[in-house]
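Here is one chain, start to finish.
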Amino acid sequence: MTKPVQWSGARLRATRDLTSDIRLFEIEPEGAFVATTPGSHIDVVVDIDGRPQLRSYSLVGPCADGCYRIAVKRLRNSRGGSVGMWRLQAGERLTISVPSNSFELSYGRSEYLLLAGGIGITPIYTMALALLQAGANFRLLYAARRRDELALADELARHLGDRLQLFVDDEGQGIDIAGEIARLDPRGELYICGPFGMLEAAKHHWHEAGRPAAQLRYETFGSSGGFASAPFRVNIPRLGLEIDVPANRSMLEALEEAGVDIIFGCRRGECGLCALPVLAAPVGVDHRDVFFSAEEKAANDRLCTCVSRIAGGCITLDTPDRHSPAAPDLLTAPA
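Its structure:
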């Protein structure tokens, strides 16, 4: 079951490679253009192994010309979304959602610190341009493993000048997150989008510094965690089911395909709608969500099925459903 989403037909106008594994997609809606705000995203219907699946992508730039732009990183451990997107050719028709925003940028703050890691630059790029136009006091710290993975860095440098700092892991550079938080005005806000480790470190240092939780805003990929994705099994005694979860599928997707009626929303580990009780779990539960607190994750009694995994073996979950209906159609979006 999904929360109501407005769908629209669209056309892929053009693509452009930003790096060797990050591609920019220009998508022209066939219906009315809906204005976007910094932090907005769209859902795209992607064909994965002959099945329609939803993937969420942050919008890049202000989209002032009536064209939505997203950047997709082709992942080695892709669940199929990035591979499916990279197969698309200019001129193809798509089904997309109307833009929505769960990563809103607030204006009028004393200072802003923007942190981006890898492909997490996509919403942060848009926020930086908006803050520049608003005349705000801000800095952007952007990290990647290699220099050639710093997508949009040249364009950001032209716009931002010394407001931008780049950090390259392979060159021995890293962001001192605790130190940067200490520099931030007490009334300032931190916005972060990046891999799981960066986000967890920022949350830890923010809490340790006694900063108000409301002044930390974040978004995550929903695909990175403490270890590489591996296949595992899910046992649901109430339904008499044992379900295989391949390395390239999420737990939620496997449950859907098995016909388990489950509520979900964001598919990024942010809303908690898809969380299920854990009855028994092996060592190595990888909570990749940002919904539960560190204490709740340590308790291992609930997990978000859209992003969480285990290192292998079998995990036993409960569900309020007492039957296993036929697998529902995933989408009722226009063809």
